[in-house]
Write a structure and sequence with these properties.
4 copies of one chain form a homotetramer. In chain A, the strands form 6 sheets. A 5-stranded antiparallel β-sheet of chain A has the order 1-2-3-7-4, with helices on one face. A 5-stranded antiparallel β-sheet of chain A has the order 9-8-10-16-11. A two-stranded antiparallel sheet of chain A has the order 5-6. Helices cover 24% and strands 23% of the residues of chain A. In chain A, α1 (37-47) crosses α3 (131-147) and α5 (229-237) packs across α7 (329-349). By secondary structure, chain A is of the alpha+beta class. Chain A is globular, with a radius of gyration of 21 Å. The first copy, chain A, has 7 helices and 18 strands. In chain A, β17 (305-309) and β18 (314-318) form a beta hairpin. At the B-C interface, loops of B face loops of C. β11 (243-248) of chain A pairs antiparallel with β11 of chain B.
C-alpha cells in the first residue's frame, strides 16, 4: 500500500500540493490521551515555510482542523482525522511540467505510474507539502511519548563541508535543540546559513544530513527480523521526500571497537559506549536510539535543465519556476522527529513484551 | 509484526539457530511459475558457510525440503512452505550466555523482551542462520524476476580500507559477479581476503559495505510515500542481522550536479546519468536501481569482553566460544540479493499501474 | 485495526454522529478510473434519511466534498479522500446517555473501551451515520464494477412475516430494484411499508433480512482459506451497524440436492443450479454471488427502558429521545450494496490469477 | 491474502491434502505462555477422523511436530511453527478429478484460479485436512484463553430435523460438552447419530448447524466498524471448508423484545437477557458471546453426478471415490472452537483499551 503506515496504529496520508486540502487519519490510538493543540501548532510552525534565506516564500496557515478523534482535549477513541486547506494554490506555475518532467522530481515516474491522469501541479501527491500531514500525526505522537518520558530530537548534522557536533550517544537526557536553526553549535548554524544563502544566490540547491536521537525508550521495544526498530524507522523515514539514506549508530569497522560492553549503572543494565545506536537484534537496549538521515539536494534549481517533451518524444529544455527551498534540510528536521515519533509510538502500542519473568 | 514481510506476498520466517529446523512460508504467489531446484541449491550454497578463511567451519546441508507450494516444477497456488533441518547443533557452546549476554549480540535485548523464556543458544531466532530461510524465498523470487528480464546482483564494495569498483549505474545489463568471492575487481577481492585472514588471526572481526544493483526493472514500480522502493527495500534489508545502514544512489551535494537529465534513447525515456539510484518519488524510472548496505562487524570475537551477570547483577567477563565468521560481508552478499528480490517481486505483484493512457 | 478495511485497497472511515464531519480515505485505487459524481449523488440519496414513514426526519446534505484523489472526472492515483460536514447536529439530545447507556446501543461498550473519553452523542463513532462514508467508497466501487460488467443489487427479502420473492440465482442479468422502496414485488413492498408504519405508531422497531446478488463476476476471484469471498464479504458486512448474520447460498441439507451440477452453456462452464451462492472454496465459479444479511431491530424505541446509572452504580430508567428509524432495513439496502462492492473490488484488484494455462 | 489471518498475531496455514505435510506458523505470540502438549493432543483428537459411522476411515496421526516457538513447555518468543506429515496419501483416488471437477468442491474454481497448475488430489490446499493446522493454532489459543478464565465451547445445534437444546446465554460458566458426540442432550446426540448412519447408508450427506459460546470474556474487547467481534470471528469461521453462514445472538424481530436491559449484578454491569450475543457495536459487553455456524452438506456423495470434462469441453459423469464423511458437522465442532479461540485471542492481544478512566 502506498500512503498508509503502521502495524498497530494506521496512519493514512492524503492530499496534493495544489488540491483542496491535505490531511491524515490516524486509527488505533487509545482513548484518553491528552492533546495540547498549542504545542502542536508550535511544532507545525517549525516545518512551515518562512521568510528565511533557506526556505520558500510560500505562506501556509498550517494549523489543522480536526474532524474526528479529539474531544475536550483528549483522544476519544475514534480515528483522529485532520485536514489543512491549501489556501495559496498557484497551479499555473506548473502547467508546463505535465509535458516536460522536471529532473530530480517525481513528475516522470508519476506520469508512467498514473498514465497521465496524475495531478502534476507542484508534484501533486509527491509534494513535500504532504509532510505537513505527517507532522500532525508525528506532533501528536511526540506529545504522547513525552508523557512517557521519551523524547525525540533531531538537528542538522552536516550541510556541505559544514559539520555540527553530534549528540552525546550516552547522555541520560537530551536538551532541546534551538528551533530557529536546528544545530547544536550556534556558530556552525551560522556557517550553514551563510552557505545556504550563497547557494541560493547561485540558484543552486544543496543536501545534507540530519541526526536524530530518541532518549528514554525502555529496553525491549521492537521485534525481531522484519519488525526491528531499524526496519520500522527506515520504512517511515524514506517516506519523507528527499531522504535517500538511513544509518544507525557508529560506522566503526572492527568488532573489538564496535561492541558495546554491558555495565550496571545504578542497578540498571547499560552499555559503556553506544556504537550500536541503542539497538541490538532490532530491539532497544535501553540506551539512546541514534540514527542519521541523508537528504538529497532540492531538485528545483534556477538553471535551465535538460528534459524531454513527452508529447513530442524528443529532448527539450525546462526552467523550473515556482517557489522552492535552496535547502530543505532545516525544514526536514521536525519532519524526521515526527516520523520517528510515529514509528516509535506504533512499536510501543504493539509491544507484546511478556509480563512474566522466568525464575 | 515481527517475522512476517510483504504487502502482496506474505513471507513468514521461523526457526532458531539450534532448534529442530528453520523455515519459511511464502503466501500469495501465483500458480504456474517455474521453479528450478538446482538453480536454487546453487544460490543457497553461496550463503552457506564453507572452509574459507572468512567463514565459520560449521557445515550445513542447506537444501530445503518443500512441504507445500510446488508441483511438477511449478508453483501450484498454495503457500510455498520449506524447511531446513538443523543437523549440526551444539547448544552447549552457548550455555553461559543465558546469564552473561554477549556484547553486540541480541542476547540481552531478547532476554528483556522475552522475560528469560527465549532460546539463547546461538542467538536463537536472532541468529544469522535464519537468513538461509530468507534465501529460500529470495532464491525463488530471483528466478521469477529473471524470467521477466530483471536481474539483481550484489558485490562487496568495501571492507576496511579496501574498496572495489562500483557497478556502472547506467549499464544496460550487468554481468554476474564471481561467486567464489564477490567483487568486481579480482585483485581487490584478493586484498580483501588477505585483510580478513589477518583480522581472523588477531581474533577480531570486521564490517563492510555491499553494493546492489537491480537492472531491467521497468519504470512505474513502487508506490508514493510509505510504499516507495526505498521504504520497501530498507524494511527487508534491515531484517538481515548486522545491517545498520541503507543508502540509495550517489551522495552528491549540489542539485545542479545531482539531478539526472531526461533523454530519449532508442525512443525510450532514460536519464543521462543515474545519481538518484533509479528511483524518483519512490517509483522506478526505468534506470538501474542502486543501493549500498552497511554491515557491522561480526559481534563474536575471540577476546575476552566485559558484560554483566544478570543473576548476580554485577559486571562480569565473557569469552565467546562457538563458531563465527571474522567477516560476514561475503556471505551477506547473496542475502542482500535475496532480500532485494523479495521486495521487488512483492512490489511487482502489487503494481496497480493503470493500463489506461490519457489522451 | 478498527476502522480500516481492505487488502489491496485501504479504506479508512472516520467521524462521529455529532462531530464536525464524517469521511473516508480510500488508498490503492488505480489512476484513470472515471467517476461520475451525479451517479454517486443519486446512490448516496438512497441511504439518506427522508420523510418516509420508515425513516428519521433528520435532514442530511450528504454530497461529499472530495479533498483528494479526483481530477477532471477521473481518479488521479493519489488516495481518494472525501468528507461530509455534519450540519444538523443536536448533541443535547444525548446528554443523558453518557451516564445511562441505551439498551441495544454501543454506549456501554464504548464507555468501557474508551474509559469515559468517548463521544456519546448520537452513538459517536458507532453511529449509523458513518455508513454514509462507507457509501461514498462503495458508490465509487459500484461505478468501477459496472464498467467491468459487474452489478451489485440488493433488496429487502423479509421484514417480520412479510417476505419478498428472491433473486433468480441463475439469471444472466439482474434488473435494478426500484429504489423508492427496494423490493422485487411492489405489493410486498406496500405490505412492508404498512407494517413499518404500524410499528412506528406503537413506538417500537423491527428488523429484517436483505438479499444481495453480484452478477457478472468472472470465475476465479477470491482466495483460499481466510481470503475467500465469504470471509471478505462477511468482514465488511458486519461493519454495518445492526448486521448480525451473513449467509451464503441456499440452506439445503442433503448433499444430493445441494451440489450444483456443472454444465456447458454456450461453451462456458456454468452450473445448472446455484445453491452454493456462486462460491466454491472461497472462489467465484462464474455464477451469481448470492447472500443474505440479517439486520437487528433499531435499538432506539420510544418506550421507557431499564438501564443503569454508571455514576450512581444502580439500575435506572431511560427514555431515548432524538431521531430514529422504526426500521433501518430499507436504508441499509444501499449500504449492503456499497459494502459488497468494496469487498469485491478489493478482491479483483488483488487477483493474482495466473495468466498461464497448463497444457 | 489467502492463507494468513490475524491483526496482532499472524497465522499462516500451509499444506495440501496429499502433499508431504500440512502445517502452520503463528507469529506475534508473547513469550512465557505455558503449553501443554498432552492437552493439545486430546484437542486435536476431537477433530481427527475415527471409525465412527459419521466419519471417514482415513487414519491420521495428527500430533504435530513443533519446529519453532516452544522451549521447556513455554512459548519462547519466536514464531510457533508446527507440521503434521501426511502419512496416508492415496493420490490415485483423485486422478480423474483434474479433468472432471467434483460438484460442490473447489476443483473447478481452483482450476480456473490456478490455471491447471493446482494440486487436485483430495482438494489440495482446499481440503478439510487443512483444519488440522488451524486446530494446532486454535488448541494453543484455547489454553491461553483458559488461563485467563475464558472458555470457548461448541456443540451440534441441529442436523436435519434433529435439534439440540441451546447454551444458556446468561450462564456464568459453561460445562464442557461431551466430546464423543458433541451435543448437550445425549438423547438428541443419539438421534443425530442414527440420522447420519441412515444418510451414510443411502450414500448421501447432510449439513447442520453448530452453536458456539465464549464465556469469561471481559467487556471492552473488539474494535468499532470493521474490527468488531462479529467481523473478526466471521472472517476466520468462513475459512473452515463448508461453513456458509454465521449468525450472532437471537433472531428476534421487535426492538422492544430484542434490547437487553442493563442491570447491576454483584456490583458489575450485566444484561438481564442476552439477545445480542454479548456484542454491542462490535465490542464485548461482558456477557457470553454466542453465535451459530451453518455447515453445508459434505459435497462428496456416492451417487454418480453430472459434471463436465474440461479437456473434452462437454458434459460428463463423475463418481466420487475416496474417503469422505457423510456429515462433517461433528468433526467441525472443535474446528469452530479453534477458529473462535484464535480470533478472540488475537483481539485480546491487540486490545488498546485505555487504562485511564475519566473523572
Amino acid at each position: 500500500m502506498s500512503s498508509v503506515y503502521g502495524e498497530n496504529l494506521k496512519l493514512s496520508i492524503f492530499g496534493r500540493s495544489h488540491g483542496p486540502a491535505i490531511g491524515m487519519t490516524l486509527d488505533g490510538i487509545p482513548a484518553g490521551l491528552p492533546v495540547d493543540t498549542e504545542t502542536l501548532r508550535i511544532f507545525l510552525d517549525r516545518r512551515a515555510p518562512g521568510n528565511t534565506p533557506w526556505s520558500t516564500a510560500r505562506k501556509e496557515a498550517d494549523m489543522p482542523e480536526f474532524l474526528d478523534g479529539l474531544l475536550d482535549g483528549h483522544t476519544c477513541g475514534s480515528p483522529i482525522a485532520a485536514i489543512i486547506r491549501n489556501s495559496n494554490v498557484r497551479s499555473s506555475d506548473y502547467d508546463a511540467i505535465k509535458d516536460r518532467p522536471r529532473p530530480g522530481h517525481a513528475d516522470y515516474t508519476a506520469h508512467i505510474k498514473h498514465g497521465g491522469f496524475q495531478d502534476a501541479s507542484g508534484g501533486g501527491h509527491f509534494s513535500g507539502r504532504l509532510t505537513a500531514a505527517l507532522c500532525i500525526a508525528g506532533g501528536l505522537c511526540l506529545q504522547w511519548l513525552d508523557e512517557m518520558g521519551i523524547s525525540v530530537r533531531a538537528h542538522i548534522l552536516q550541510i556541505g563541508p559544514v559539520k555540527d557536533q553530534g549528540f552525546d550517544p550516552c547522555a541520560s537526557s537530551i536538551s532541546p535543540v534551538d528551533v530557529s536553526f536546528p544545530t547544536i553549535d550556534p556558530d556552525c548554524g551560522k556557517a550553514m546559513q551563510e552557505l545556504i544563502a550563497s547557494i541560493k544566490e547561485y540558484g543552486d540547491s544543496i543536501g545534507g544530513t540530519i541526526e536524530c536521537i530518541v532518549s528514554g525508550l525502555p529496553a525491549g521495544v521492537g521485534e525481531p527480523i522484519f519488525g526491528g526498530i531499524e526496519n520500522r524507522l527506515a520504512q517511515i523515514l524514506f517516506g519523507i521526500p528527499g531522504v535517500k539514506g538511513v544509518d544507525f549508530g557508529d560506522d566503526i569497522l572492527l568488532g573489538s571497537q564496535y561492541n558495546d560492553a554491558f555495565i550496571y549503572t545504578d542497578g540498571v543494565v547499560k552499555t559503556s559506549t553506544n556504537h550500536c545506536g541503542g539497538i541490538l537484534g532490532g530491539i532497544s537496549n535501553g540506551m539512546n536510539i541514534l540514527f542519521r538521515v541523508r537528504v538529497k539536494p532540492t531538485p528545483s534549481i534556477s538553471a535551465e535543465q535538460q528534459t524531454v517533451s513527452l508529447s513530442a518524444r524528443e529532448t527539450a529544455k525546462i526552467t523550473v519556476g515556482g517557489r522552492h527551498d535552496p535547502c530543505i534540510v532545516p525544514r526536514a528536521v521536525p519532519v524526521v522527529e515526527a516520523a520517528a515519533a510515529i514509528a516509535i509510538y506504533d512499536m510501543i502500542l504493539g509491544n507484546t513484551q511478556t509480563k512474566r519473568r522466568k525464575g
